[in-house]
Amino acid sequence: MNVLVIDIGGTxxxxxxxxxxQRREFFSGPTLTPKRMVSKVRKLVTDWKYDLISIxxxxxxxxxxxxxxxxxxxxxxxxxxxxxxxKHPVKVVNDAVMQAMGSYKHGKMLFLGLGxxxxxxxxxxxxxxxxxxLGHLPYKKATFEDYVGIRGLENYGKNRWRGYVVDVVxxxxxxxxxxxxxxxxxxxxxxxxxxxxxxxxxxxNAFRGGFRLWEGDSRRFHAPHITPSRQGVNVxxxxxxxxxxxxxxxxxxxxxxxxxxxxxxxQVAEVERCGAARIHVDVMDGHFVPNxxxxxxxxxxxxxxxxxxxxxxxxxxxxxxxxxxxxxxxADSLLVHWEGNPNLHRTVQLxxxxxxxxxxxxxxxxxxxxxxxxxxxxxxxxVMTVNPGFAHQRLLRSTIAKIRRVYQMIExxxxxxxxxVDGGIDQETAPLVVAAGANVLVAGTAIxxxxxxxxxxMKRLQNAANNAVNQIKVR
Length: 475
Fold this sequence. Notes:
The chain has 475 residues and is of the alpha/beta class. The protein has helices at residues 34-44, 82-86, 95-103, 144-148, 150-176, 205-212, 239-242, 264-273, 296-305, 323-329, 344-353, 399-413, 430-436, 445-448, 454-471; strands spanning 3-8, 12-17, 24-27, 52-57, 61-62, 65-66, 90-94, 108-114, 118-124, 127-129, 138-139, 142-143, 180-184, 198-200, 226-228, 234-236, 251-254, 279-285, 292-293, 310-315, 333-337, 357-362, 380-384, 418-422, 440-443.
C-alpha cells in the first residue's frame, strides 16, 4: 500500500509518497484554508499513486481532526474532515508528533521544532504525548514561541535568537528530564552549535513518521489512552503518562468586557503577545441578564485584529436566532446557557453544523447534574462563578464544589471537553478553581484593570494557576 505524507507548515506544504525520494511543495501562509490545501495537493500529485494518507498538522489534533486553528494559516481547519475531502483513508497527527515518530530511537525523547513557531512532542518508551504545545508557555514578556519561533528570529536577530533557543531548551530539559532531545524544524540549521544533550533531526523524519503511521508495527507509536487532560495538554493516562501532569499549563482567556474600549484593538494585541489562549466576548441583551453589551459587529472588528480564537458567550434570549450572525462575524466558539433553553441539544447541534466549538454555560444556582445528558456533545463547559451580567464581582466560593463535580463528570463522559470558569478570577482565586479541575480561566478585571499593566497581570495570573497545577496530586 502506498502512503502519501503531507507535512503542513507555516510557510510551505511538503508532500512525499512511497517509492519516491524527491518531495514536492508549495507555499502555504495566512490565506491557506484546508479546502485550498486539499485542492493544491491533489493537483501537485496527480501522477503519484497512493492508497493511504498521513497528515502532519501545525496544531492540536483529536480523533483525527484539528481542534484549534493554526496560528500562521487561514481559517476553517477546526473539525475539517480530510478523509471525506481526499476520498482516501487519512490519519492526522500534530506535525511535531509526526517528526518525533520519525526521529525516535530510544527511551524518553523530547522533540522540539524550530520553525514558524515552536513545535513539541514527547515519546515515553514508545508512548507518545501528542502536541504538548510548550511553545505557548509563558516566557519573559510573552511565550517561548515568541522568542524562539520565526517572530523571535525576526525581532531579535540571529545572535540573540540563538541565546534564547539555548535558554529555552535548557529550561525544558531541566523540567522534563528526557533521555534524548531532538531539534528539528526549518530554523535549526541557523544555530551555530547545539545546546548540550541535543541532536539535529532531519526534516525528512516527518515523512518517515508519516509512513510509520501506517506500518504494521505502528502500534509502538500509538497512545490509545491519550486524551486531553483538564490542564490543557494531551496526556497519556498510562502510568508513564501521568508523571507528565505536573508539566501542564492552564489557559488564560481575557474577557474584553473589562478592557478599555478606546484602545480595544491595542489591548487585544497585547494579551495575544502575552500568551492569551482565546479572547472572551460577553454578549448581553438586557433581557436574559440585566445589562446590555457588545454584538456581532464587535466580533467582526476583533476578527480583523487578532488570530486568537474568539469565545462568544451569548447571555441572550433565543440564541438560535443569532447563531448565523455571530458565526459569519468570525466567532470560533459559541457558549449558550442551559437556563431558559428548552431545546439545548438542538442549539448545540446548530453551532456544530457551522463548524464551531459548542459550549454550555451554567449559572451559580444551577446544579451540575443538568449537564449529564448534554455533556457528551459539548466542546467546553463554562461554570459561572458569579451571577452573569456585570464585571468586577467577587467569586462565589460555593461554586468551587460544583466545579469539582463538573470535572468528575467530564472525566467520565467526555474527557476532551474543556472546563472553563468565569467570574472573580484573580491571583487568589485562580489556584482554587484550578485545584477543583478547571483548565480554562476567563479573567477581565484582573488583567485589564491591573495598575501594573496587562503583561505583568497575565504573568502573575498564569504563574498562580501553574503553581496550583504543580501542587495537584495525580488523580
